[in-house]
Amino acid sequence: VVSMPAVLKLSFTAIGIPSRMPSGYGATALNMKRDPLKLKTGEAEFPLTLGRDVSGVVMECGLGVSYFKPGDEVWAAIPPWKQGTLSEFVVASGNEVSFKPKSLSHTEAAALPYVGLTAWSALNQVGGLNQSNCSGKRILILGASGGVGTFAVQLMKAWDAHVTAVCSHDASTLVKKLGADDVVDYRSGNLEEHLKTLPLFDFILDNVGGSTEKWALDLLKKWSGATYVTLVTPFLINMDKLGVADGMLQTGVTVGSKTLKHLLKGVHYRWAFFMPSGPSLDEIAELVDSGKIQPVIDEVFSFSEVPKAFLKLEGGHARGKTVINVISKQ
């Protein structure tokens, strides 16, 4: 296990952050993680560097780093409680870093780590899906055309699952190209009623949240181990609104009550979050180099166009990831 930090010089970086983060979303929880003893003043978090993904070249390594060396081409996703990646240099822990897929340029590679690890957390680490148990399983992905959704579709097809993807009509061609077996346009009539006409599912990944949670679990096969995993949780919102203690208490009550409620109905209910992991990126890199997963890039901006890139993110309806080229060399 590498514990000392590796210092990376970034060739490129991608914006891999929730679009609400610049407006303060999650500030309470992330500030607690950054400064749990509150040793710093209230203004110490600024200036705050945004951006989560990075693909670049190692410049220096800490004394305890033996797996990487200067000059290695690597990629990583930096956790949100650390300073971000929209800069020429980034400090990352060795266990957050992985060798970049050889088949990708830095621009392409920068589009995958954050969304890939978020989907990997939901599907594999929380949902329990893997290459050996997915064959023939029916998977429903709600919100299939964004960064996490496009990665999830490809991962499930790489593991031989049957994938039903929900997105808008204008994204259906992209999602079909990524391998989805069935594509449902959420704008064409009553989505809930349409999905109820399909065979029941073994697993649901929810990237949308909101009202979908009220009916989506009825689409699962009962008493078969079927699981619903959502990436849209009230955890950070609760802590922003209620403070650390009350927010954590409310969150615990919410997830506990929902888990028990649905367990009694014969299905599993889970929350998932992004988790940084170099070893998981190693597995993702193998899938990329074998041609089973490809980056989906919506648009590429230069470093001087960062404000424009954030305005695009705030508009929503992304088709994959938005990438920032920090250095013009690819």
From TrEMBL:
Matches recorded under Gene3D superfamilies: Medium-chain alcohol dehydrogenases, catalytic domain, NAD(P)-binding Rossmann-like Domain
GO molecular function term, any single one: oxidoreductase activity
Keyword terms of this UniProt record: Acetylation, Mitochondrion, Oxidoreductase, Transit peptide
One Pfam family of this chain: ADH_zinc_N_2
Subcellular location, principal: mitochondrion
Cited InterPro entries: ADH-like_N, ER, GroES-like_sf, NAD(P)-bd_dom_sf, Quin_OxRdtase/zeta-crystal_CS, RTN4IP1, YIM1/Zinc_Alcohol_DH_Fams
CDD domains hit by this protein: RTN4I1
GO cellular component: mitochondrion
Annotated compartments: Mitochondrion
Domain of life of the organism encoding this protein: Eukaryota
Domain Enoyl reductase (ER): start-end pairs: 3-324
PANTHER family reported in the protein's UniProt record: ALCOHOL DEHYDROGENASE RELATED, RETICULON-4-INTERACTING PROTEIN 1, MITOCHONDRIAL
Family: Belongs to the zinc-containing alcohol dehydrogenase family. Quinone oxidoreductase subfamily.
Protein name: Reticulon 4 interacting protein 1
Organism encoding this protein: Cyanistes caeruleus (Eurasian blue tit)
